[in-house]
Amino acid sequence: MITHIRGKLVEKNPTYAIIECNGVGYYLNISLHTYSKITDSEAIKLYTYLNIREDAHTLFGFSDKVEREIFKLLISVSGVGPSIGRTMLSSMTPKEIQHAIASEDVATIQSVKGIGAKTAQRVIIDLRDKIVKTYDISEDSMQINNTIKEEALSALEVLGYSRKQVEKLVQRIIQETPNISLENMIKQALKNL
Questions:
Q1: Residue 26 forms beta bridges with which residues?
Q2: Helix H or strand E encompassing 50
Q3: DSSP secondary structure letters along 58-81
Q4: CATH 2.40.50.140 at 4-62, yes or no
Q5: What is the pLDDT of residue 141?
Q6: Average pLDDT for 114-122
Q7: Contact 106, 143 (CB under 8 A)
Q8: Is it true that 4-62 and 65-134 share their CATH fold?
């Protein structure tokens, strides 16, 4: 398997990058997360995953090893193929995916295009223990974050905002500042609405 490619960046697009290495141009499918990390400098290194099927050999590129490992975990779930895995990594950062799985946040995972309720639940069931152990996410912090998230959502609903309107905002605030207090979370959410 090709583990990484280091070479000259020939072309960069939100869905792919072409890297020339010793006279050979490699076409790598990338996520928006990786696209945002790629600088316009000529020298570049991407970690890779080669997906082999009967009709195609597809090379995927990642900005770091963590993103590649999350991708490999995602595609190990029945019903999640490489294109949905890449879509997830384009919709959310690897850290957001880790927290959504560890905190059993079905709504966040389901918000990704192409993932239904059953697939979102299967992702959580199959990967929760692996994510918690591998990335050392503490159960207590996930429980506290879930409690604060629910209380913040309830408070914002009482203030007249729909749950759907504020759910992603509250989730983003938790991920940006994991140890935020309930009061500060509500204040920050109101500033951003």
A1: 19
A2: strand 43-52
A3: EEEEESSHHHHHHHHHHHTSTT--
A4: yes
A5: 52
A6: 90
A7: no
A8: no
Burial of 190 (C-beta count, 10 Å sphere; 0-12/13-18/19+): middle
CB count within 10 Å of CB 40 equals 7
Cβ proximity of 66 and 97 under 8 Å: no
Q: Was domain 65-134 assigned CATH 1.10.150.20? A: yes
The Cα 124–Cα 128 span in angstroms is 5
- Look up residue 13 and give its DSSP letter: -
Whole-number pLDDT of residue 166: 84
First to last CA, the chain: 47
The pTM score is: 0.71
- In DSSP notation, 142-188 reads HHHHHHHHHHHHHHHHHTT--HHHHHHHHHHHHHHSTT--HHHHHHH
Residue with tokens 């993932």: 115
> For residues 27 and 135, which has the higher predicted lDDT (pLDDT)?
27
- Domain map (residue ranges) of the chain: 4-62, 65-134, 139-192
Confirm if 96 and 85 have CB atoms less than 8 A apart.
no
| pLDDT tens string 100-109 | 888 888 888 8
Q: What is the CATH number of domain 139-192?
A: 1.10.8.10
